[in-house]
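Q: Start with the shorter request: fold the first protein.
A: Done. Sequence, then structure:
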Amino acid sequence: MKRRISILAALITLTLVMEVNGLQFSASGRVGSSSGAVSQNIQTSIDSVINGEVTINGASVMPATRIIGATPLFKETHRTVDGTKSASVSVEVVNAPNGLTYSSQVLPGEGTVPAQTSLSAEQWLTVPKADSIKCTATASSGALKTDVGLEETKGSLAGDFVTLSDYYGKAVASASSISASQTAISGSANSIKIYGDGTNCKINSQLTGISGGKATFSNLNSQSSATQVTQKEHVSGKFTSKLTAGSKSLTRTSNYGTDYDLDMEASGSSVLGILGYYVSPSNTIQGAVNAAKSGDWINIAAGTYKENIKVDKSLVLNGLSGASNTIIDGQQKGSVLTVGSNKPNIDATLAGLTIKNGKAQSGGGIQNYGRLTTTDCIISGNLATLQGGGIYNEGTLNLNSGTSIANNVADNNAFAGGGGIYSYHGTVNINSGASITNNKATHITTDNINGQFVGGFAGGIYSDHSTVTMNGGMVSGNTASFCTGGIYNDEGSILTINDGVISDNSAIRGGGIFSFGSGGGAVNTDKNTVIINGGLITRNTASLQGAGIFVDMNDKILITGGTISNNVATQDGGGVFVDSGSLLTMTGGTITGNSATAIDSAGGGLYLYRGSAVLGPSISISNNKAVSGGGIYNDASKLTLTGACINGNTATWGAGVLNDYGITTLNSGTIISGNTATKSGGGIYNIDGGKVINNGGTVTGNTPNDIVQA
C-alpha cells in the first residue's frame, strides 16, 4: 500500500535526556517538513556544565553532531522502497578548516524505481573539525518511503573536535569504554572529557589532573556505568526517541500528525572524550599543534616521533603511554621543542613525554619563552653548543613530579653554561619529585686554573638575571669543568631553596652552590641573593674551594634551616666558602660532617675571606674537619655568634674557630665545646692579630685547650 508524503508543514520539538557516568546530558531541537521534502539542519553546542549536569542546546533528531572521539568516520546510507520516483540524500560538512567544504551525495534512487524494489548504498565520509554537519533527505511526492541513515561507526557522539591523526584520511583507533569513580573518569586514547566552548559553557567541575587516559576532577559526582549510547528516531504518526546508557534508558513519545516514515539512527561508544587531538606514529605532532586551538589537548600514542616542534598557543601535549614509550627525537637538527618564541604569553604543558637528541646553540632539548609546565617527562641526551643543554628558558618553567632532566651537555664553546638548564631573565620552579641529574658543562680550552680558564659553568642550572625556587626534588651528579656543578646564580639572580636535595655535584669551585666568580657546584651568585630555608646540600665536591656553597663578590646568603653535610673541598671551605665582601646570615640549620683535605686546607665547615657572617641563635656547626679551622676559618672577616653551637670539630690548629686577622664576637648563648686540635687551639686559635670579643659566650671542654692567642 502506498503512502503519500504530506505537503503540509509539520513541526515537532524533541527533548532528550540521558545520563552517562553520573552526568546528565539534555538535548533539544526540532524536525520539520514542507513541500514534500524532509530536511533537518544538525548543529549543536554544549550550553552549560554545572554540578555535573550538561545541557546541550540546538540538537535535532540526530544527537550531538560536533564530533569527539577516536575517529572521524561516518557511514551514509539510504534506500527507497516501493517507489516510482526519485529519492536522494546528501551529507555536508559545514565550515571545515581552510575554508574547505566536504560533501557526499549518493543517489541510488535517481530516476524511476520499480515498485517493490529496495535500493541501498553507502559511502564513508571523513568528517574534519567543523562547525556542523548538515543532513538533508529529499523525496518527491511520488515516493512512498525513504529511509535515511547517518551512522557514526567509531568514535563518540559529543564534543568539539575530531582526531587529527586522520585529518584527511583513514581511521586510527576505535573509541574505548570508560569507567568512573567519585572523582575520576578513566579510559584510553580520547575517551575522556567534559567539554564546553568558551562562550556557551560554564564548567563548575575543575579538571585537576590527567595522565595516560585518566582525568581527575574536583566537584564531580559520577557513577560507574556502561557507555554505549544508541538513539533511534522513528516517525510514523507518533514520534518515539530512546536513549540508552548502560542500565539507564529514557523513552520519549509524542504525537506527530504526519503520514510518512523517516528512520534515522546514530550510535557510538562514548559521549565523553579528552579535549584535543589524537596523534599516532604515522602522523606528526606538529600537524596537531597547527590545527589545534588554544586550550586543546594533543594526545600522543606510544612511538618515536622524529620532529622539531614549535608551539605558539596554549596546549597540552600528553603522552598516553608515558615518557618511556612516547619519544620525540630531534635528530640533532635543532631544539626538539620551542615554546612561545613568537607568542610568549602562552601556557604549555608536557606530560608523559621524552625529549631527546636535540642539538642547538641554546636549548638543545627545549627552548621556552612562554609558561611551560612538565610532569612525568624525560629531557635527556640533548646538546647545546653554548648554553642550556637540556632547556634554555626565558619564560616561566615549572618542573613537576616525575620530570627528569638528565645526561644533557653544554659543550664545545668558550662559555658553555647550564648543562641541564640555562635561565635568562626567567623563572624556574623545581617541585617535589623533579630531578636534574648527571648533566655537564664543559669547555673547549685546555687551560688549567693557573691560566686563562674559560667556559664550563653550571652543570645543573645556570641562573642569569633569573629567579630559581627549589620546593623539592633533586639536583644531583652534575659536573662543570670550571664553576658550579649544581646551580650557578649570576647577575642579580635570586635562588631560594625551601626543600629538596643538592648532592654529588662537582666542579673546581662551588661544588653544590656558587655565587659569582669561579664556582663549580650548585650555585653561583653575582650580586645576588641565596636563601636556604630547608633541604639538604650533601656530598658535593670542589677541587679548590666551597664544596657545598661558594658565595663571592658582595652577595648575600641567608640560611634559616636545612642541612649542609659531608661535602668535601680539597683546599678550603668544605661546607661553605664566603668571599670578598659577601654576607652570610644563618639563623637556623646545621653545617656538619664537611671537610677540607689538602695539607694546607682551612675551614672544614665554613671559610670566611674578607666577608662577614652573623650566626645564631639556632644553628649548629659540628663534626667538620680541616688542617686549620675545623669548624670555622675566619680570614680577615667579622664573625658574630649568638646562641650558636660549635662542637665536635677537629683540626691541627683551631678546631672550633681559627681567627687569622679576623674578629669573632661571642654573644650570650653561644657554646664552643668538645672540639679537638692535635696541636693547639681546641676551642679558638688566634693568629696574625686575630681576636675574640666575648660578650657572654661559653668556651669550654675543648682539647687540648680552649682559647689560644698565638
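Q: Next, the second protein, separately.
A: Sequence, then structure:
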Amino acid sequence: MSTTLEKIKPDTLARIEKQAQFLGLSVDEYLQRLLPIEERELALKPEFPDDEFEQDMAQFADVTELNDRKGSYSREDIYFDHD
C-alpha cells in the first residue's frame, strides 16, 4: 500500500523541505500554512456596525479637501525622491 509521500516526486519533496527551512518552519508547519483556512474563519467580522462605518466615511468626505489638478506633472515632480 503506497503512502501519500511515495506519490510525491523526490525533487518536489526537496523543494518543499528547502522552502520550509528557508522560512524557519518545519515541513508540517509550512504545508499547514499552504492549506486554506476553513470557511468560517475566512469571514471578516467588522469591528463596528455598518451604520457607524457609513457615518465615519461621510464625515471623512466632508472634511477631506482635494486640490484641483492643474496641468501636467513633470518627470521631476513625479520622481522627486529618486536619483
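Q: Describe the second briefly.
A: The chain is about 55% helix and 0% strand. Residues 50-63 form the longest helix (14 residues).
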